[in-house]
Specification:
This protein is mostly helical. The chain has 13 helices and 2 strands.
């Protein structure tokens, strides 16, 4: 089976599992499934960015653009339908990423990580300081859910919407991954100098991955805002950013199943220890360190095996 089909099966199976789980699960589990579905969109879009060889720390701040776009555009004087506002939020997030890509993609490795962290923090401060537009630290409340839902207050119907968006974005990212552009992006991620030497426009492809990955973050932000009914700077927190990064580290980013399984593992830990939530970040951190050490050990063993069999 091709990698493209495996990725399609992964997102379709996940979408179906969320809907089935929503029908048979309790009200509490229904909420867990909704949050898992929206965070899955975040990790899949984040994986797209990692394929170009950089790990951004601005993903959650860019997600905030989607949330605030829905909050502003779905209210007077714009009064856009919520679903249209969610799509617009994704486009605004992609536009911001396009503007940000020029300075941050001049950097590499740790400097890329630090520059995106600085950009994300600057964006979060903008959400706080521009009170007339964003509501400051209080944020914007009373955000409606999409009118397309027969019963907007139904969490089950919202879960079905999240599952549908997850599958559609999954198909989009899987198609990108299997396309000529997607293969070149991964080649740039593996060896940028070598890719450039054979005529590949490395900067443009890295920017493309950053922009399209940010589009998914904006869509997820719009869904978070309309599900919670409010968006505020407190939603843009380091804990969620760490969760997205940790899911990709623990599960790997080679295929879609990696970050999804990583997210599932982190969510199980979060639920097991939900009565002592202060321990959850520490436990996540321990498993991230173990995953990094194991990855280094496995790469070393693989290199030795290749040398012996060369």
């Amino acid at each position: 089976m091709s990698a493209f089909r495996r990725d399609l099966m992964t997102v379709c199976a996940l979408g179906a599992a969320l809907v089935v789980g929503g029908f048979v699960g309790s009200n509490y589990m229904l909420g867990v499934f909704v949050l898992f579905g929206m965070t899955s969109i975040l990790v899949l879009s984040y994986r797209t960015i990692t394929t170009m060889g950089g790990w951004s720390f601005a993903h959650i701040a860019i997600m905030g653009i989607g949330g605030y776009s829905v909050a502003i555009l779905s209210k007077p004087p714009f009064d856009l339908p919520v679903l249209v506002a969610i799509v617009a939020g994704g486009l605004f997030a992609a536009l911001f990423a396009a503007l940000l890509s020029y300075p941050v993609l001049q950097t590499r490795q740790y400097y890329f990580f630090l520059s995106t962290f600085a950009a994300g923090e600057a964006l979060r401060q903008c959400f706080i300081q521009f009170r007339e537009i964003t509501g400051g630290t209080s944020g914007i409340a009373f955000i409606e859910r999409p009118e397309i839902l027969p019963n907007p207050s139904s969490t089950l119907e919202f879960l079905c919407l999240v599952a549908a968006v997850l599958v559609l974005l999954g198909i989009f990212y899987a198609s990108l991954d299997a396309s000529d552009a997607g293969l070149k992006i991964k080649a740039v991620g593996e060896d940028e100098a070598l890719s450039s030497s054979i005529g590949i426009d490395a900067w443009a492809l890295r920017a493309l991955a950053f922009i399209l990955g940010s589009f998914g973050a904006g869509i997820a932000g719009g869904l978070f805002a309309t599900y919670n009914g409010i968006v505020s700077p407190s939603d843009i927190n380091a804990m969620l950013m760490f969760k997205v990064v940790a899911a990709c580290v623990i599960g790997g980013t080679t295929r879609f199943s990696g970050p999804i399984l990583g997210l599932l593992f982190l969510t199980l830990i979060e639920e097991i220890f939900r009565f002592v939530p202060e321990f959850v970040p520490m436990i996540w951190g321990v498993f991230v360190i173990i995953a990094i050490l194991f990855g280094q050990w496995a790469r070393g063993r693989l290199m030795v095996w290749r040398i012996k069999n060369a």
